[in-house]
Amino acid sequence: MRIEVKDVSKRYGKKTALKHVTFTLEGPKIYGLLGRNGAGKTTFMDILAGHRLATSGEITIDGKKPFDNREILKNICLIKEADNFHENMRIKHIYKSYAYFYPNWDQPLADRLTEMYGLNKNARFKTLSKGMASAVGIIVGLASKAPITIFDEPYIGLDANARKQFYDILVEEYEKEKRMIIFSTHLIDEVSLLFEEILILKEGELILQEDADQLRSKSFSVTGSVDEVEKFIANKQVINKKKLANMMTAYVYGSPDEAAERKLRVEGMPIQDLIIYLTETEKEAN
Fold first, then answer.
1. What's this model's pTM, rounded to 2 decimal places?
2. If phi over 0 gives left and psi between -120 and 50 gives alpha, with beta otherwise, what is residue 279?
3. CA 206 – CA 138 distance, rounded (Å)
4. In the chain, what are the domains?
5. What average pLDDT values come out for the chain (286 residues) when binned by 10 residues?
């Protein structure tokens, strides 16, 4: 499916959550939608899933607007950090209601994951711990088999082992049946290797959209004498730089060619560090 985001802005009173955002997503692919709190990620996902209207601009999916459009919405499943389900519903009834809405619902997968996470299908949602509530969301998102599946910080309360189980199952199911997965998380180091393409939002604006492998290969740091580092980074895209005495470390987006010739130490930069530097505020940078 093809998602086109055209000059989308969203305002809440005097606060602007999205500012003239434009980009295109085409699946099947696993996208990482990254940025700090308040960057506009959740607002974008809400608009995409038809939960909100943009103030201006539009989002279309295969040329059609999702808001109040049953034919489009049955292809989108959004699992948020919280407030996904009615508290009084039993788990089995949650599954039943989602099976009615999503034509590709996979009940055997839901049953397998329910057992894996040790859930009682007769339990009411309000009785679940945060971790178990997150597990229900993960199960629904995966079992929906929606062509566009969106996870917005889906694993609050899950321990590291339970999160790893989620990542493993997500990859397993994706390989079996490809779909577009949009993943927003702050645990970037845990999941960055899953991403095929990365989008970064900062203060409501899209500041980067890049193939994940290209992003990894082009993001690096160089360390050496101030003079040599300054010569190397001339005319390059410098994300950040730090100086201590006569030494400097620069974080660069581009090609590391020639760094070795200048006797600079080159190191790869984790995606999480890249996000931190790219989304740094002017106050933090100073």
1. 0.89
2. alpha
3. 27
4. 2-203 (3.40.50.300), 218-285 (3.30.70)
5. 96 94 94 93 95 95 92 94 90 96 96 96 95 95 97 90 93 94 91 92 93 88 91 87 90 82 85 83 51
